[in-house]
Amino acid sequence: QVQLVESGGGLVQAGGSLRLSCAASGRTFSTNIMGWFRQIPGKEREFVAAITGSGTITYYAESVKGRFTIPGDNAKRTVYLQMNSLKPEDMAVYYCAAYTGAYYGGSTYSRGNEYDYWGQGTQVTVSS
């Protein structure tokens, strides 16, 4: 089992920045990919970013490329989502997720059903 706890959500003005954290505990050694997703009520869950356990490979949705980064800190077993130049359309509940399957280079890990564990979510509100 892997437990994930997100934090760092809140209210920010458009153009501002926010950093989300996802602290992992439990069998974290089995985690090969950590990802961030977001969801607006009534809409499908949307992929945001992902990072390999080694931290050497990252994946980003087109809508956030150049604005968001997904740094990780293995020593703290924490992955972050640094969000810059926030837009009103970034407003959503953000979820952290962990994939514990075998890593294969043919995937961009952008599908929610690839992930095994999820956090409870943290709300990000962007005012225009």
What's the SSE blueprint?
Blueprint: E1 2-7, E2 10-13, E3 18-26, E4 33-39, E5 46-52, E6 58-60, E7 68-69, E8 72-73, E9 78-83, E10 92-99, E11 117-118, E12 122-127
Parallel strand pairs: 2-12
Antiparallel strand pairs: 1-3, 3-9, 4-5, 4-10, 5-6, 7-9, 8-9, 10-11, 10-12
Features:
single chain, 128 residues, mainly beta, seven-stranded mixed beta sheet
Characterise the protein shown here.
- 0% of the residues lie in helices and 48% in strands.
- It has strands at 2-7, 10-13, 18-26, 33-39, 46-52, 58-60, 68-69, 72-73, 78-83, 92-99, 117-118, 122-127.
- Strands 2, 4, 5, 6, 10, 11 and 12 form a 7-stranded mixed beta sheet that branches.
- The mean pLDDT is 94.
Helix content: under 10%
Amino-to-carboxy terminus distance? 40 Å
Poorly predicted regions are: none
SS-derived structural category: mainly beta
How many DSSP helices? Answer: 0
Percent range for β-strand residues: over 45%
Shape: globular
Rg (C-alpha, Å): 14 Å
Mean pLDDT over the residues: 94
Order of helices and strands: EEEEEEEEEEEE
What is the strand tally?
A: 12
**Main sheet overview:** 7 strands, mixed
